[in-house]
Write a structure and sequence with these properties.
786 residues, alpha/beta, eight-stranded mixed beta barrel, five-stranded mixed β-sheet, flat
């Protein structure tokens, strides 16, 4: 037999510092409940303590009425009344109940009450001088003795405050008695006070012990109640019993109440009929009831069997457990078991299940449920030889809305998108949110691929219409990747991967379109993966280098600088085009280290050139998302010993589509260093004049496509070049024409007003040694001419 634990009251350490509140107990939770009981007991005796103080003050005032001025007695009596009333009000206003929790700080604050009362009552023995001799002194001592006894009774639950009051008042009386050489009386007072304090501590200890015992008993009862499953308050559990013919016997009132029937009526009824309710006559039983019938028929023990039950027209869910009974001869007597109403638990489980499978923001199925739906659709398609489809949807320009207007607007916009998507779904379609601004659609029957494509186009058109959100008119779009199973993937994971590859191609195609999966996309994705792995090691292996293309003055042909152009020669892939590996570096988040290497290398090389020749370095939008970019530029210039005005950073208009105005702020800090800024490929992107007004560009570069078109007589290209030149001149900026390859193109851009030119006519991108030679030679030629 196991050894029982001692009662909690015995286990509760009631040492003196813990008892009076100087420190907290080892079991903070239990002592929290005890502290609340102490405060509650003090509140119950608050009016008794108030009455004792007021009566004592009145008697003391009458005792000294003939010896002291009335005003002095009145002031003292008012002081006692104010303090006593304040203490009583403070006690009565305490929010703590006897069954609640309080902390040790609440106990310690009661010291103020005891100290205040001690100070007020110390005044008569110290300052009042009775004229009538020993009789008045004796009467005052009696009043104070009664008051101290009353305080020891009323304030005993709050032992710390009581000790402070008794000790303070005792000290005042003893001091007075010692001053008049009444040593015996002083000793008697000390002894009397000590007895009161001992009695107070004993009463406080008893209160704590009683409360600890009550807590322990309540915990035991709760434990037993849980073990016996006896929840009398809600009547959720009950016992049931049947005979060998499966009829109800000994129906308890709780079981009858749960069934909505009278105990006398339910006795003798077939147990299955009681549970079936109205469906007993129709035979339309729930699957759980049929399972129960099989268990009862087979005389098998069972537990955790759940089934729906109709009680007074309301569907409830019960959970049953039972075991067969046998008599002494081994004959079957029936079943005895327990039942529970688990309707609320089932509702909670359904709610949790919904939360696990539905997106809280949009109410659409989340990634988990979309995946489960796709798995079922794939299984059905394989079973019946059909097809299913999966669409992955990515919102275009949504990030710009989030960055400029904030996430609350973005969240509401996602809600509007989900509403439009849900309205487009047919009975065989399921749409859901995968996360962020990604959505998905599962088409369970994709036999008609034309209809699937029609749905994809409809989704793009619908999501691209304007949205009105909080007085903002917003325009976004959608790109869709489409895959059909099992043709494009034998499993749900493979089909999702195929749709993802198709979505990537759709975004590459300019967004706002859908793209169906093609087998070569997997080949391209694998090539991209291998290329990315090689790119990650290209810098370390020294596979990258810079070429420098001359930039000359359009009028004089004088060399003004070079543009640094990154080149990658891979041992595995050969000479890889920047148009191929730069986007890959941006997607793989490798552009930061590569861009920093380019910047530092270009600055170091430019430092070897004559002081009049600048170097231009292209900057990716992703580099400007790094808050440390300004420090990188500063460090590159300092380490190379290059003056800031000789460095020119080239950015494209796409920079301003990232993070709202964040790019502009970074560029402004770079410009403050003295670095020049050039807007590259102007006219090929958004061409917003707002970019030019927000940022201090030193030059605008005209894309080579306009130069080539203008050389062929294209009127629109010529007009664009003239407009850009005029705009640059009005803003005090230079213009650089890119892609000039012939003498006629050179003369044309000269005539159109371009100030600088760049292209094969003046020089192809050169290795570093050749560029350095040209820079030094032209500088020497210029010096000799001077």
């Amino acid at each position: 037999m196991s050894k029982q634990s001692p009662p909690a009251a015995d286990q509760t350490q009631i040492d003196f510092p813990t008892l009076i509140g100087l420190r907290d107990g080892a079991d903070a939770a239990q002592w929290g409940r005890i502290r609340a009981t102490q405060l509650h007991a003090g509140r119950q005796l608050a009016m008794f303590l108030l009455a004792a103080n007021l009566i004592g003050a009145a008697m003391t005032a009458s005792l000294f009425a003939g010896d002291l001025p009335t005003w002095k007695l009145g002031v003292w009596a008012a002081l006692v009344a104010v303090i006593a009333v304040g203490v009583a009000m403070r006690r009565l206003a305490s929010p703590h109940r006897g069954d609640g929790y309080a902390n040790v700080r609440d106990i310690r604050t009661t010291v103020v009450e005891g100290a205040a009362l001690a100070v007020a009552w110390a005044i008569p023995p110290l300052l009042f001088e009775p004229s009538t001799g020993s009789a008045s002194a004796y009467a005052l001592w009696m009043i104070l003795s009664v008051l101290m006894t009353a305080a020891a009774v009323a304030m005993a639950p709050l032992a710390l405050a009581t000790i402070v009051f008794l000790a303070g008042l005792c000290m005042a009386v003893v001091v007075k008695l010692v001053l008049i050489h009444a040593y015996a009386a002083a000793g008697t007072t000390i002894l009397f006070t000590a007895l009161l304090i001992i009695a107070c501590i004993g009463r406080a200890r008893s209160l704590v012990a009683i409360r600890a015992s009550q807590i322990a008993l309540a915990e035991r009862n709760e434990t037993v109640s849980l073990l016996l499953r006896e929840f009398e308050d809600n009547g959720a559990d009950w016992l049931w019993e049947t005979d060998s013919a499966r009829r109800v016997i000994k129906a308890s009132p709780r079981f009858a109440f749960a069934c909505g029937l009278d105990p006398l009526t339910i006795d003798g009824m077939p147990f299955l009929q009681v549970l079936a309710g109205p469906t007993w006559e129709t035979g339309n039983f729930a699957a759980g009831l049929r399972n129960l019938a099989d268990r009862l028929k087979g005389r098998e023990s069972f537990r955790d069997l759940r089934l729906p039950v109709n009680v007074n027209g309301e569907e409830r869910w019960w959970e049953l457990a039972a075991s067969p009974r046998y008599d002494e001869a081994g004959a079957f007597c029936g079943f005895r078991g327990v039942g529970s109403d688990v309707t609320e638990q089932r509702a909670s489980a359904d709610k949790i299940n919904r939360m696990a499978r539905y997106d809280t923001l949009t109410g659409l199925p989340n990634r988990l449920m979309v995946n489960e739906t796709l798995v079922r659709a794939m299984s059905e398609a394989e079973k019946w030889g059909g097809r299913c489809a999966f669409m992955m949807i990515d919102l275009d320009r949504f990030k710009a809305v989030n960055d400029t207007l904030g996430h609350p607007i973005g969240d509401r916009l996602l809600g509007r998108v989900s509403e439009r998507l849900a309205q487009l779904m047919g009975p065989n379609d399921t749409c859901g949110r995968l996360g962020g601004d990604e959505f998905a659609v599962v088409v369970q029957d994709a036999t008609d691929f034309t209809a699937v494509e029609r749905l994809a186009r409809k989704i793009i058109d619908t999501l691209s219409r304007a949205y009105e959100v909080d007085q903002h008119t917003l325009y976004i779009g959608a790109s869709i990747g489409l895959a059909v199973g099992p043709r494009d993937g034998r499993t749900a994971e493979m089909l999702i991967r195929s749709a993802d590859l198709a979505l990537y191609r759709a975004k590459d195609a300019g967004r706002g379109v859908y793209h169906a999966y093609e087998p070569e996309l997997h080949v391209q994705a694998e090539e991209r993966r291998v290329l990315e792995m090689a790119l990650r090691q290209a810098l370390e292996r020294g596979e990258m280098h810079l070429n420098y293309q001359p930039v000359v003055d359009a009028g004089t042909g004088q060399l003004t600088g070079f543009e640094a152009l990154l080149r990658w020669i891979s041992p595995q892939f050969g000479n890889v085009s920047p148009a191929k590996f730069i986007p890959l570096a941006e997607d793989a988040r490798l552009i930061q280290p590569i861009g920093e290497w380019v910047l530092r290398t270009a600055c170091e090389e430019a430092a070897r050139w004559p002081s009049g020749i600048r170097v231009a370095v292209n900057v990716s939008p992703d580099q400007l998302q790094n808050p440390n970019f300004v420090n990188v530029v500063t460090s590159a210039l300092a380490n190379a010993g290059l003056s800031a005005e000789r460095l020119e950073l080239e950015v494209t208009e796409s920079v301003f589509m990232h993070e709202g105005l964040g790019a502009t702020k970074v560029l402004e800090r770079v410009l403050d260093l003295g670095v020049r800024l050039s807007l590259d490929d102007f006219g090929t992107g958004y061409s917003s004049l707002g970019y030019l007004s927000r940022t201090r560009f030193s030059s605008i570069k005209i894309d080579r496509s306009f130069v080539q078109s203008a050389s062929k007589g294209g009127k629109e290209a010529i007009a664009i070049i003239r407009a850009v030149v005029a705009l640059a001149q009005s803003l005090g900026m230079a213009t650089t024409a890119e892609g000039v390859e012939t003498e006629s193109e050179h003369r044309m851009v000269q005539d159109l007003g371009c100030t600088k030119v760049q292209g094969y006519y003046f020089g192809r991108p050169l290795p570093v040694e050749e560029a350095r030679t040209i820079a030094l030679r032209r500088w020497d030629d210029a010096a000799a001419a001077a």
